[in-house]
């Protein structure tokens, strides 16, 4: 066993240090096919004190590391290339739920859906609901600033995190709190959320809990033309309605879902369906429902189905929620992509994506958070077919170029990780990328946390300046 | 005021490159720069008043105007010196608004509102600057121009320079451009005066769970929050509310102890909200312009609990974004240490 592994065994117990190749296999990739890297070993602390001690031991050994939650990430962000991986999956304790203040404090490994379940007896839930919510961890959500269908109305992870205790890579423990309206200070919590494991390890997180809405109404609108569905999205938002969720499912996705065991009764003869949910107090909900139906029809919807009881609603949601699983059955692998365009550009962008897919002979299934303009062009493929994967990557690159050209961005919720790094300089100037490096350096001057992710190192001026500068940065207090 | 390098100068750059030149020159000469938007919040007792004597002044008023606005996207990009009033004029024409409504007046600039992260009476319900900022451009303390975020409503590309600049009081960079999230102006927008039934506000009985009554000696922000909690525990929450002490009540022409609440949304929703407010006392509709005077009048001091630079990460940020302490020197209380 390697010496560092032995030292860490003393903190977490030998059974929680994984060194054998066969056991490391599951830690070699995340949810995105095409990337596989083996960590030096995995160390899994069981509580906050152990996690802090582990990070401090790594600091003393000057060893770089990668934190990992549930490994559901879709940007190859939690992969460790021959360095130590800190697995946070054992830290699953919900410390407290405060039903009056509507907050919960949890360990980072707590699974998203489990927190909502624990809050349910109080009529509360944790609002950010990534489609992976039955598996992904709160720590991973914080690190990725995760979104989900209901973030359209309720906001993304950033808007729900109130406090985090973070061990900086040099071992210092800091408390990051949401800024107060009557104080002055840097929004270090805001900077930490979405930092993709590069700023330190969150060892506990306090989040806001949201009261369950009094009423919910879910609608499924069938659009013979994709263009009409895209236009309806803009029209609904422009009318001042803020749906709880507004999701688009295209023909390719519907075909996959309806051919699977998850068949949800979506029509297979349309180009797209919109899944629209409105919620809130009973008052005004009928008005919103009627307005959504009218706008959908005005934009060419053939029919709008409405579900108000929970079993009907679940059925309508099933087509959306099981889409990834269903697509996974179409081919051995599924490349889940993520990009954002201004809402009004959805229709032309979807058309361009269709053209790109055709040209590269790949199949793109779109199922996404349309209300935010957050696209997920997903490509079922065979990860072992080199020719097909080359075409998949070429198509992904062109899709990113189209989104950037339309004033959009390369990721709305899955992060940059390794996968999106090649696009960073298409989006940001060298000076902007250098500024991001400097932000990261303030948290991790020695760059030992998740090295080589998010911003390509060649854009970090100070780091590249000279070996002595590099040393000076590393030695900063 | 003078310092070793001669009398303080005043700069009014007309563009980001000019501003970057001003910063580079100041850095080279070891001079400080006092950053000014419209200069409306710079009197005694404000954070701006702490800026070290002798700093040159750089005013952003000429760096103004709307850069991009696609109403259908509900996003708008404006230069930092654009006033909130100008922003409002542009968006209102399309039935939209940016719900910042910060403490102060609409003569203030958008750059300052984000740099100070000033919230207002509707911040909790409609979004604070950190929630409404989508993209940012700034000039750091060495004259480098950088951008974070973008023009779309959801974005996790790269480390978050937007949240870094919002609330940094110009000490890590001078904001030159901001992209904000807009909202459609609601169909109904009603402000009501709630005169509590018997025993003043404290006698009213809000739903269980609310922090009520507000603690004695609490600040006006805390008092507003307590009432908001009470009203928010109702099914239809107001977008904001105000509890006035006797002095302010007299000044703003409302009965002392009264609660002013604003309901926004669809007509049916607002009607229901106003009906629920009736549980706290007698409700009468009042003029929405109350909020303009309330925002300008109500003092919500921003405190320094020690210098933010006492935190290691903050100190390293300052060292990497403004190593020469050019930007707003002294504003974070660093001189008091
Ligand atoms: C089927 C499917 C659907 C998905 N749907 C969505 C969706 O709707 N919305 C969405 O936003 N994402 C979605 N995702 C992506 C993914 O689930 C999220 O990014 C999630 O937040 C990752 O959480 P995790 O615990 O799996 O993190 P991991 O994959 O383990 O790690 C992700 C990153 O977080 C860092 N990290 C983890 N824990 C910590 C910690 N405690 N401290 C510091 N850094 C940490 C890691 O270093 C890594 O960089 C989906 C994924 C799948 C497979
Ligand atoms: C009467 C009144 C009362 C107010 N009360 C409060 C209050 O109680 N609480 C509160 O938080 N705010 C308060 N404000 C502040 C206000 O909400 C805005 O922050 C301010 O009005 C913005 O207007 P300005 O352009 O005049 O800012 P200025 O007075 O020009 O600047 C305010 C601060 O922001 C910095 N700044 C300005 N522009 C930039 C930029 N582009 N980049 C970086 N830094 C910049 C300045 O250095 C200065 O420190 C009040 C303002 C007024 C007029």
Quick summary:
The complex is a heterodimer of chains A (477) and B (337). Chain A has 477 residues and is α+β, with helices and mostly antiparallel strands.
How is this fold's topology laid out?
The complex is a heterodimer of chains A (477) and B (337).
Chain A: H1 3-12, E1 17-18, H2 21-24, E2 42-43, H3 48-60, E3 65-68, E4 84-87, E5 94-98, E6 103-106, H4 112-119, E7 124-125, H5 138-144, H6 151-154, E8 161-167, E9 173-177, H7 188-192, E10 201-208, E11 210-211, E12 215-223, H8 226-238, E13 245-250, H9 251-258, E14 272-280, H10 285-298, E15 303-307, H11 310-321, H12 323-328, E16 333-336, E17 339-340, H13 346-359, E18 365-368, E19 374-375, E20 377-381, H14 386-405, H15 421-427, H16 430-443, H17 461-465, H18 467-475
Parallel strand pairs in A: 2-4, 3-4
Antiparallel strand pairs in A: 1-2, 5-6, 6-10, 7-11, 8-9, 8-10, 12-14, 12-15, 13-14, 13-18, 16-20, 17-19, 18-20
Chain B: E1 2-3, E2 6-7, E3 10-11, H1 16-29, E4 33-36, E5 56-59, E6 66-70, E7 75-79, H2 84-92, E8 96-97, H3 110-115, H4 123-126, H5 129-132, E9 133-139, E10 145-149, H6 161-165, E11 174-181, E12 183-184, E13 188-196, H7 200-203, H8 220-232, E14 240-243, H9 246-252, E15 259-265, H10 267-277, E16 281-286, H11 290-297, H12 312-321
Bound molecules: flavin-adenine dinucleotide (2 copies).
One flavin-adenine dinucleotide (FAD) binds at residues 30-31, 66-74, 77-78, 88, 108, 130-132, 136-137, 139-141, 143-144, 146-148, 196-197, 201-202, 324, 413-414, 450 of chain A.
């Amino acid at each position: 066993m390697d010496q560092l592994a032995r030292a860490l065994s003393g903190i977490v117990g030998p059974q929680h240090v994984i060194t054998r190749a066969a056991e490391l296999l599951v830690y070699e990739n995340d949810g995105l096919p095409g990337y596989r890297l083996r960590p030096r070993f995995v160390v899994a602390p069981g509580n906050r004190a152990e996690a802090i001690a582990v990070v401090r031991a790594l600091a003393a050994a000057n060893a770089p590391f990668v934190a990992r939650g549930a490994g559901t990430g879709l940007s190859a962000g939690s992969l460790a290339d021959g360095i130590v991986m800190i697995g946070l999956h054992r830290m699953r304790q919900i410390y407290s739920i405060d039903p009056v203040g509507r907050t919960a404090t949890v360990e980072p490994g707590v699974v998203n859906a489990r927190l909502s379940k624990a809050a349910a007896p109080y009529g509360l839930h944790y609002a950010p609901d990534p489609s992976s919510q039955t598996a992904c961890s709160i720590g991973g959500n914080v690190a990725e600033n995760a979104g989900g269908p209901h973030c359209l109305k309720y906001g993304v992870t950033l808007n729900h995190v109130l406090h985090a205790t973070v061990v900086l890579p040099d071992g210092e423990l800091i408390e990051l709190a949401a800024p107060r309206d009557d104080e002055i200070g840097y929004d270090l919590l805001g900077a930490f959320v979405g930092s993709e494991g590069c700023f330190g390890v969150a060892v506990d997180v306090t989040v806001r809990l949201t009261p369950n809405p009094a009423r919910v109404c879910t609608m499924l609108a069938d659009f013979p033309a994709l263009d009409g569905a895209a236009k309806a999205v803009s029209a609904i938002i422009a009318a001042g309605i803020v749906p709880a969720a507004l999701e688009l499912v295209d023909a390719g996705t519907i075909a996959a879902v309806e051919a699977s065991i998850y068949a949800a009764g979506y029509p297979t003869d349309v180009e797209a369906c919109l899944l629209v949910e409105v919620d809130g107090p009973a008052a005004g909900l009928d008005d919103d429902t009627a307005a959504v139906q009218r706008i959908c029809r005005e934009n060419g919807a053939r029919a709008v189905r409405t579900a108000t009881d929970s079993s009907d609603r679940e059925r309508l949601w099933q087509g959306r929620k099981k889409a990834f699983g269903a697509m996974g059955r179409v081919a051995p692998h599924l490349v889940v992509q993520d990009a954002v365009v201004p809402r009004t550009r959805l229709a032309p962008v979807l058309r361009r994506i269709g053209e790109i897919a055709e040209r590269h002979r790949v199949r793109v299934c779109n199922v996404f958070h349309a209300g935010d303009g957050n696209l997920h062009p997903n490509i079922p493929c065979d990860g072992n077919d080199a020719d097909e994967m080359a075409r998949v990557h070429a198509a992904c690159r062109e899709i990113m170029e189209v989104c950037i050209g339309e004033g959009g961005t390369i990721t709305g919720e899955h992060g940059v990780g390794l996968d999106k790094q090649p696009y960073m300089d298409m989006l940001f100037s060298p000076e902007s990328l250098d500024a991001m490096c400097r932000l990261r350096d303030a948290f991790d001057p020695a760059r030992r946390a998740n090295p080589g992710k998010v911003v390509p190192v060649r854009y970090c001026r100070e780091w590249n300046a000279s070996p002595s500068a590099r040393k000076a940065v590393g030695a900063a207090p | 005021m003078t310092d070793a390098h001669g009398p303080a100068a005043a700069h009014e750059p007309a563009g980001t490159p000019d501003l970057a030149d001003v910063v580079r020159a100041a850095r080279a000469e070891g001079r400080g720069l006092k950053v000014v938007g419209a200069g409306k919040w710079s009197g005694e007792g404000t954070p701006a008043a702490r800026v070290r004597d002798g700093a040159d002044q750089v005013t952003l008023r000429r760096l103004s105007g709307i850069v991009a606005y696609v109403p259908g996207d509900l996003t708008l990009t404006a230069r930092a010196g654009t006033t909130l009033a100008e922003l409002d004029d542009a968006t209102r024409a399309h039935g939209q608004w940016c719900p910042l409504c910060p403490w102060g007046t609409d003569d203030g600039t958008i750059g300052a509102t984000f740099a100070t992260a000033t919230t207002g009476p509707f911040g909790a319900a409609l979004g604070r600057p950190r929630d409404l900022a989508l993209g940012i451009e700034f000039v750091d303390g060495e004259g480098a121009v950088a951008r974070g975020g973008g023009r779309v409503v959801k974005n996790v590309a790269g480390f978050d320079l937007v949240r870094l600049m919002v609330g940094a009081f110009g000490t890590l960079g001078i904001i030159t451009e901001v992209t904000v999230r807009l909202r459609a102006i609601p169909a109904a927008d009603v402000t009501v005066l709630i005169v509590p039934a018997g025993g003043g506000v404290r006698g009213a009985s809000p739903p269980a769970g609310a922090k009520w009554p507000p603690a004695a000696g609490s600040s006006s922000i805390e008092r507003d929050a307590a009432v908001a909690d009470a009203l928010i525990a109702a099914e239809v929450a107001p977008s904001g509310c105000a509890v006035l002490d006797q002095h302010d009540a007299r000044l703003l022409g409302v009965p002392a102890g009264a609660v002013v609440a604003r309901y926004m949304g669809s007509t049916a929703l607002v009607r229901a909200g106003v009906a629920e407010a009736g549980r706290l006392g007698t409700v009468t509709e009042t003029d929405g312009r109350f909020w303009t005077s309330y925002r300008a009048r109500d003092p919500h001091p921003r405190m320094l609990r020690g210098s933010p630079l006492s935190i290691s990460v903050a100190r390293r940020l300052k060292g990497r974004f403004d190593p020469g302490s050019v930007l707003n020197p002294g504003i974070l209380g660093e001189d008091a240490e």
